[in-house]
Amino acid sequence: MTKVCEDCVVRDRSLCGTLDDAALTEMSRLGRRRKLAAGESLQFEGDDNILCANVLGGVLKLSSLTPSGDAQTVGLLYPADFIGRPYADTVDHDITALTEAEVCIFARAPFERMMAENIQLERQLLERTLSELERSRRWLLFLGRKSASARLAGLIIDIDRRMAQTGCGADLGIGQLIQLPLTRTEMADVLGLTIETVSREIGKLKDAGVIATEGRRGLRILKPAALKAIMDSE
Amino acid sequence: MTKVCEDCVVRDRSLCGTLDDAALTEMSRLGRRRKLAAGESLQFEGDDNILCANVLGGVLKLSSLTPSGDAQTVGLLYPADFIGRPYADTVDHDITALTEAEVCIFARAPFERMMAENIQLERQLLERTLSELERSRRWLLFLGRKSASARLAGLIIDIDRRMAQTGCGADLGIGQLIQLPLTRTEMADVLGLTIETVSREIGKLKDAGVIATEGRRGLRILKPAALKAIMDSE
DNA sequence: CGCAAGTTTGACTGACTTCAACTTAAGTGG
DNA sequence: CCACTTAAGTTGAAGTCAGTCAAACTTGCG
C-alpha cells in the first residue's frame, strides 16, 4: 500500500506539511484533486463559501471586478499556497487559473473540523495568513506610491522569486528563462495599469538591456541589480 | 475586589473577549496600558518584534516609507483592533498614533504562550487576520483602479463606519458630526494621493453638497447615497 | 497557411502632481 | 481677550505620467 499523499508535490510545503500520518490520512480522505484549464474559475465573488484548497500546480489569481467593469487582481496563488477563507459565509473574490493548474479541494465544513482537531493546522494557517496580509500591504505601497516601471519591476521580481521557490532554479538567476504565468492583460490587472502601459514599460526594460523576452511569455532577467533598483525607485 | 479588566472599554470586542475569567486574569497580568500622544510611534519598521497589543482608544496608522521618502499608510487601527504579528522576528511597518491613543501592550513571547494555551485566542486572531487581509485587498482595488474622488469617498465611508462601531452613533447618520482622526496629509498617505488633490476633492464634495466640513477635522455626511455612488464610481 | 487573440506602437488627452503663493485655523503669551 | 505665530489647508498655473483610442503587427494554433 502506498503512503498517503505520497505523490503530492507540495506535501511538505503546503498547509498539510505539519500533519502526522494519522491526520494526513484523514485529510487525504477529505481532499479531492481537480485540474483547472487556464482561464477556468474555481469560484466567483459572492458565491457561497463552500471550499478550501491547496494549490498543487500552476498559478491562479484572486481578483475582483469594480462596478465599472475593470478587473483588479489582488493576489497570485502559487503551488503550496492555500486557497479559501474558513469561517466566512461568502466568497470575497474570484479565483481563476492563469495557467493550467491543479488544486486539492476540501469541503469547508470538514476542513474546519480538521482545523479544530489539529491545532497545528490552525496555527499554520494563521502564520500563512499573517504573511499574506504582509504581502498584500507591501503591494498596497506599490499601487499607492510607485510608478509604472517600479510596479512592473516589482512584479517581475516577485514572479521570479515565487517561480524559483516553486520549481527549481535559483532566485534571480541571471539570464534564466522564466515562463510568465500571466498575459499582458493579466499583468496590467495586477499592476493597476493598462495593457498598453505594461507593454511600453516592458519595451523600456528591454531597450535598457535589463530583461530580454522570448515569445509572449518567455522572459530573462539580465540585470537583476538594475531591476531591483527600478523597483525601489519612486 | 474589582473584576479583572472590568474597566476595559474594549473588553468584549477585543481579542480578549473570548477568554474565560481565569485566562483573562492571567492576560491582565501580562498586559500593561500605555498612552500615546498624537504623532507618537509605538514601533518602527525593522525593529525587533517584541510586542503585541490591543487598541483601547484613539486611532493609529500602520505605515511604510518608500526608499524615495514618501509615506504610504497601509492600514488604520481603531479601538478593539489587534496590533502585532506573532511569530515574526521583525516588525514590518511603523505604527503611529494619529490621535491621542491608548493601547494594552503584551510582550510577544508571553502573548504567544497565551495563544498556545488558549486556542480560542488563536482562532480569534485567525479570523481577525483573515478579515484584515480582506480589508487590505479591497483597498488594493481602490488604489489600483479608482479615481481620487472614489478613493476619498471610500475613506470617508470607512472612517464613518469604524467610528460608529467604536463610539456610539449610527453608521452613515445623516448630518452627524464626525471628528476625522486624520489630517489632510495623513489622508493623502492613505489614499496614495497628494495633499493638494485631497483638498481639492474635499472641496468638490462640499460644493456638491455631499458633505460639509467644520473646522479642520469636523465633517458631516449630508448625502450618504451620493457619497456611496461616488465611491462605487470609477 | 490563415486566422484570431494577443501585443506593440503612435498620437492625443486628461487626471493627478508639482511648485508656489496665499488663506485659515488654532494655540500662546502679552 | 486679542495680536501673534505657526502649522495646516486651500487655490492657481504649469507640467507629466499614464490612459484612451486607433491602427499595425506578432505569434501560435487549427
Automatic annotation (TrEMBL), chains A, B:
CDD domains: CAP_ED, HTH_CRP. Coiled coil: none annotated. Keywords: DNA-binding, Transcription, Transcription regulation. Residues 146-225 form the HTH crp-type domain. SMART domains: cNMP, HTH_CRP. SUPFAM superfamilies: cAMP-binding domain-like (SSF51206), Winged helix' DNA-binding domain (SSF46785). PANTHER family: CRP FAMILY TRANSCRIPTIONAL REGULATORY PROTEIN, FUMARATE AND NITRATE REDUCTION REGULATORY PROTEIN. This is Crp/Fnr family transcriptional regulator. It comes from Sphingosinicella xenopeptidilytica. The lineage of its organism: Bacteria, Pseudomonadati, Pseudomonadota, Alphaproteobacteria, Sphingomonadales.
